[in-house]
Specification:
This protein has a single domain, classed as Ureohydrolase domain (Arginase, Chain A), CATH 3.40.800. By secondary structure, the protein is an alpha/beta fold. Helix 3 packs parallel to helix 4. Helix 5 links the parallel strand 4 and strand 5. An 8-stranded parallel sheet has the order 2-1-3-8-7-4-5-6, with helices on both faces. The protein has 10 helices and 8 strands. Bound molecules: manganese (II) ion. This is Arginase, catabolizes arginine to ornithine and urea.
Length: 322
Amino acid sequence: MDAPITIQPKFLSNKTELGLVAVGFSGGQCKPGVDAAPMALIESGLVEQLKDDLKYDVHYDGQVHAYGDLMPKTDPDYRGMKNPKAVCAVTKQLSNQVYEHAKKGRFVLTLGGDHSIAIGTISGTAKAMHERLDRDMAVIWVDAHADINTPETSDSGNIHGMPVAFLTGLANDKPDAPFGWLNDDQRISPKKLVYIGLRDVDRGEKKILRDNGIKAFSMHDIDRYGIGKVMDMALGWIGSDTPIHLSFDIDALDPMWAPSTGTAVRGGLTLREGDFIAECVHETGSLVALDLVEVNPSLEEQGAAETVRAGVSIVRSSLGDT
Ligand SMILES: [Mn+2]
């Protein structure tokens, strides 16, 4: 089915140029397998669908980046963080890859990988939006978790639970420390951050959200208002003159739809609600980038294919499929 792209993007050079980055990295958490997600998504035909069905001009270097050459010989814990050097090196490199696409005015689609990679993707688009348009960027973070622990509030030390803290500057690092490479023009304001789908938020994170006035729509809010009203409120908070980076963790979906993910939590979004979120953000014309993360094809023999299909559906919905 041909689905011509009808929404005119406000912050991209045109409506068909798309940069694709495949990130086979799992070092932000402890379960192997999430690095295989980009290949599973691509083997399911995602790139052909973007080209043939949705009519994008896809710029893709044809490889799933594992960043083997960047891996340190030793990587001791730092401030309680696991694999700090590896995550730092990968996200710094990824930030440049995303920036190279975004500065040309392309939409940037990144297939992860665990959610630590958002330190790279969001910093890359934020920098490009500052340079090209002199605008701050908003982030819609769709997730069961807030991923806003600082190294000090984190129980696990897994950096995939911390990316938002580094991206907002709520967790800082000395210039010579792992995330010291993040500059102000690569960060986002906590005021431009909106969460959707939360249902498993740590006590320390709740305090961070409260203290910083961060906008968050939990599953409770979705039950109360319905997903339509929640999207009206979320997009109203951001406003119509702000570029949006959508960071979609597949664990936002209920395990019924996406069981093959590292930290599944029951009571989540239906696949239709996930697609609806993506469609609404697409319709604004403000969407400049999408991350799809935390699909782990190795965790569930039965549910892996279903989880990959759910991921493909979220990507298509974000890119104008109707
Ligand atoms: Mn996440």
